[in-house]
Amino acid sequence: MITLKQLMIKELSLAIFFGLLIGLGLTGTFYFLKQNQKESLNNNQVLITTPTPMSSTNKLSPSPAINSNSTLTITSPQNNDIVATSKITLKGLSNNPTANLIITTPNKNYHSTTATDGTFTQDIDLDPGLNDLQITLINAQDQEIHTELFITYSTAKL
Amino acid sequence: MKSLIFLLSFLFFSSQLALAQTPTTSTATEIQQLREVIQQKVQEKLQQISQNPIENPKKAYFGTITQFDATSLKINTKTQNLTFIIDTTTTYINLKQNKIKNTDLKVGQNVLVLTLKQDASTIIAKRIILIDPQKLQNQKITVIGKIADISTTSSVLTLIPINNKSQELQIKLDSKTEILDLNNKTLKTINLKKGQKIICTYGTSVNSTYPALQIIKVADN
Q1: CB proximity list for A6: less than 8 A, separation 6 or greater
Q2: What is the rounded distance in angstroms from the CA atom of residue B91 to the CA atom of residue A153?
């Protein structure tokens, strides 16, 4: 036979046990929520700061690595091409980023620089007939690369 | 009461499970990887363009006639010897822009040959134009060097090319000389000083002083 006293002790024990369980549960939940909040804050900080080192790397590289085998390639137009417009866009690439590029025609001179990936574009005005373009690239180590391009501006029907 | 306790316990444990499933991969790393892939693709595309350009069938070649007859023309350019087919559609133009005949051509004449490529081995000379190379050739020279001396009174500077220090160029500046900084901002002659590194584009001259066409100030020393 279970006495009333025993029943009360049992009920009390159960109440203490579940009270502790709820208390611990709530404390645990609160702790984990706090931790999670901290973690997501850290993640957000990474997201915000990520582009900064990228852009700062680009800005902090005015002196690219020494390149003894400098290249200069004109991708468009091709040498000896006949074009039907008086203005062309000269496109090319080099393994020298941020190098100085001087393009001369008999009547004009152009100055630009290669992009960080080595590519470049320059609009050029052509005279009717043969145009002799002298292209000079000067890299950060003062190395010069010279190339010549002949472009003929003609609207004659061939 | 018991059901409330059960519910609270369930909520407690289920929240822990949910937290355990929170993704841990870094978004920043993924963005970086994506950037690298895009950069690589751009480089590949550029390489492809430079290696396999679409060939323009219309080409013009400048050179000196070495041989010709009624069916073919041979010229010598700066870099190669070329042979073109001549047919009844070929036209000939002299220095005065007048039409001439095939028989008016002479070996040694400078010509600009406008051609049309019909297939891999057939290049037809559609128009043969006699030209004066002196009027067409670009004789400008561009060098990087240091200003060894500059005269403010005569606007003449002495330039020592960095890649040929034994050379000493006398460069004459005039009102047509374009003086720029690296950002293409216009400068004045007084901004040029001894010891500065410049990129100088100059023209030809009969004497030892060359006309400066464009000067770009690169650095102060």
Answers
A1: none
A2: 18
pLDDT at B13 over 60: no
Give backbone dihedrals phi and psi of A137, rounded to 5 degrees, phi first: -110, 130
ipTM: 0.74
Tell me which CATH homologous superfamily contains domain B58-131. Answer: Nucleic acid-binding proteins (2.40.50.140)
Q: Which residue of chain B has the CA closest to A119?
A: B46
Q: How many CA atoms lie within 13 A of A19 on its CB side?
A: 6
B101 near B93, Cβ under 8 Å?
no
Per residue in A66-95, is it b (16+ CB within 10 Å) or e — as a string?
A: ebeebebbbbbbeebbbbeeeebebbbbbb
Which token pair is A112?
A: 């630009």
Domain B136-219 in CATH 2.40.50.320? The answer is yes
Query: Does the predicted TM-score (pTM) go above 0.80?
Result: no
* Secondary structure of residue A40 in the 3-state scheme: helix
Beta bridge partners of B91: B127
The minimum CA-CA distance between A11 and chain B, rounded to whole Å, is: 12
Residue B140 with chain A: CB contacts under 8 Å: 104, 106, 109, 134
Q: Could you tell me how far CA A6 lies from the centroid of its own chain?
A: 76
- Cis bond before residue A77 (omega within 30° of 0): yes
pLDDT tens digit sequence for B112-154: 999 999 888 889 999 999 999 988 889 999 999 999 999 978 8
Residues of chain A with Cβ-Cβ distance to B162 below 8 Å are 142
Buried/exposed A32-46: b ≥16 CB within 10 Å, e otherwise: beeeeeeeeeebeee
- Which is more confidently placed, A95 or A7? A95
Residue ranges covered by each domain of chain B: 2-51, 58-131, 136-219
Residue of B nearest to A51 (CA): B28
- A132 vs B5, residue with greater confidence: A132
Domain B58-131 and domain B136-219, same fold? Reply is: yes
Cα within 13 Å of Cα(B98), Cβ side: 4
Nearest chain A residue to B10 by CA distance is A25
Query: Cβ contacts of residue A154 below 8 Å, gap of 6+?
Result: A82, A83, A84, A128, A129, B60, B114
For residue range B18-51, list pLDDT tens digits in order: 444 444 557 888 888 888 788 777 777 666 666 6
